[in-house]
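User: Earlier you gave me the apo prediction for this protein. Now I'd like the version with zinc ion bound, so I can compare the two side by side. Same sequence as before, with the ligand SMILES added.
Assistant: Got it. Here's the input I'm using:
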Amino acid sequence: MLTDVIDLLHCPHCTGELTLTGGTAGCPAGHRFDVARQGQLNLLRRSAGANADTAAMVADRVAFLAAGHYAPIAELVASAAVGSVAVEAGAGTGYYLDAVVSRLARTAPGARGLATDVSTYASRRAAKLPRIGAVVADTWAGLPIRSGIADTVLAVFAPRNLEEFARICAPSGRVLVVTPLPAHLAEVRHTAGLMTIEEGKHERLLAEARTCLTHDRHEDLCYRIDLSPDEQRHLIGMGPNAFHTQPAGRPETSIATTVAVRLDVFRHPAASTAPGRGQRAV
Ligand SMILES: C[S@@+](CC[C@H](N)C(=O)[O-])C[C@H]1O[C@@H](n2cnc3c(N)ncnc32)[C@H](O)[C@@H]1O
Ligand SMILES: [Zn+2]
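And here is the structure of the complex with zinc ion:
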């Protein structure tokens, strides 16, 4: 719920503290934002752009994720999470954030999550999850989130603004980024004539991070899944292909395909300059 996370937010216009009064969030300077009936808070300073997932894409994502094919990815991300406050940018339906917060709650009973996404339809879904507040916000516009409050920041298959992630990350926190490897869904892409995964994605991520975060490690996850024709349609409909290509007809047979993703774990640079427990300065 929004009340769980309002203290993590700031006004997108003036960075003043936001407080909730009834169905409105406001800052001391008088900027006001309505909380939607479905529970999400819209902090966009403009109307949602063409990059926002549509209602149909979100419905396909809900259906696909419910089948559990990406549960091992959620497990991988959750195992790398730390602390009690998690923020996911481009959270979609909040599937990964939900897994992270559930994991954190095992050791931190007050664990909570903040899901941001530029899509209102996606944020509505995330707003339904327990211990999670959902905010409509554009990752590129600067996140309406206070500095240094997140123990874990996630971006899973979503746009990354690493400078912003570093700003909101606590000094002891982690930034977790999941990206597809070249083999990811290769069979489905090939059969349906979909977009390929660009080369050099990982190198670009590390280059982008160099100025603001410290790379800790990466973990690759690779496994096979069988997808029914309906599941293939959901997969195609929920992803960037729904924007960019005209899939070559409806899938009619099941297909075995590869899931291949990389989790990169970054630390806040402050954590690497100060010697931690058990470390000696050299
Ligand atoms: C491929 S989906 C991934 C969603 C979620 N992380 C998942 O894996 O289920 C990308 C998400 O990023 C959102 N998105 C795209 N551009 C964005 C932006 N500039 N700021 C915030 N969210 C954005 C889309 O609306 C969509 O929900
Ligand atoms: Zn304000």
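For your comparison, keep in mind: Confidence is low (pLDDT under 50) at residues 274-282.
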